[in-house]
Specification:
The structure is a single chain. By secondary structure, this protein is α/β, with parallel strands linked by helices. The protein has one domain: Rossmann fold (3-Layer(aba) Sandwich), CATH 3.40.50.720. Helices cover about 45% and strands about 15% of the residues. The longest helix is centred in the middle third of the chain and has 25 residues, at about 170-195. The relative contact order is 0.15.
Length: about 300
């Protein structure tokens, strides 16, 4: 049987945090979890869009338990404040969905001096996950789901120049950041298993789903042609953002999912019901994963405590 929204088990009593839940895949991930009874916190940088997402979810799920907390993943100070606030005010987290991201933007440095795609897509989520680990450990079987992309297949880890100081190309560094997502997932899974933790690390990708992300980055880069191509592709070939969110939701909720699993669309990893998906040889390289982990620890000053 194809896995669908109808297969999502009851989430009553569970608490979920979804980064970037103010639109696209994240909004639908938050909506589906809320519809099944979870208490959902949308962590988002854009307050106006986040409030719009709340209205959308509540219109679809009138009794939804959903709220917005501010979070800018490109700022380690913002990530630290979010984690400290959570640990001070709230308790258990059952599901953390590391979903937010930027794509193919011009080379920009974050407030911490990191290339922006690396900072937002990987470093911020690395810091958030480690910062929230005490809350995840309180759950009987918490899950961390990190959203990657099919673009990871063409990604390389420029470990000696992660920030693109020697040469930067928007799509190349986007692909690197999506490879980082999978390397992070794998090394986190290894460390959690080694510590016999009940927290599981999984990943997912949406295939080709129609969201604004494919057009915003190219537009910002000044490539109206690429932006237009994605617009046409979204209209003709892409599955909906709701369908694109299903791999993340399956990773977060399927009782049969396990740490290390990678879910994506069934048909050519492009569209269709979510199932376990293949990943590149680079994404499975333990040496690369360890190198990235150690560099991420250096940049954030954080280490995993389980």
């Amino acid at each position: 049987m194809a896995w669908s929204e109808a297969e999502i088990p009851d989430q009553s009593g569970r608490v979920a945090v979804v980064t970037g839940g103010n639109g696209g895949l994240g909004l639908h991930t938050a909506r589906m979890l809320a519809a099944k009874g979870a208490s959902v916190v949308i962590a988002a940088r854009n307050a106006e869009k986040a409030e719009g997402a709340l209205a959308t979810i509540r219109a679809a799920v009138p009794d939804a338990k959903v709220e917005v907390w501010p979070l800018d993943l490109s700022s380690l100070a913002s990530v630290r404040a979010f984690a400290q606030r959570w640990l001070g005010e709230r308790g258990t987290i059952d599901v953390l969905v590391n979903n937010a991201g930027v794509m193919a933007i011009p080379r920009t440095l974050s407030v911490d001096g990191f290339e922006m795609q690396l900072a937002t897509n990987h470093i911020g989520h690395f810091a958030l996950t480690l910062g929230l680990m005490p809350a995840l450990q309180q759950a009987p079987a918490a899950r961390v789901v990190t959203v990657s992309s099919g673009m990871h297949w063409v990604g390389s880890l420029h470990i000696d120049d992660l920030d693109g100081t020697k040469g930067y190309e928007p799509w190349t560094w986007y692909a690197q950041s999506k490879l980082c997502n999978l390397l992070f997932t794998a090394e986190l899974d290894r460390r959690l298993r080694s510590a016999k933790s009940a927290v599981a690390s999984l990943s997912a990708h949406p295939g080709y789903a129609a969201t604004d992300l494919q057009q915003v980055g190219p537009r910002q880069s000044g490539s109206k042609f690429v932006s237009g191509v994605f617009g046409i592709g979204n209209a003709l070939f892409a599955q909906s953002a709701a369908d694109g969110a299903l791999p993340s939701v399956r990773a977060a909720t399927d009782p049969g999912a396990q740490g290390g699993d990678f879910f994506g669309p069934r048909v050519l990893s492009w569209f269709g019901a979510p199932e376990r998906s293949p990943r590149s040889s680079a994404a499975k390289d333990p040496a690369l994963a360890l190198s990235l982990w150690e560099e991420s620890e250096r940049r954030t000053g954080l280490s995993l405590a389980v």
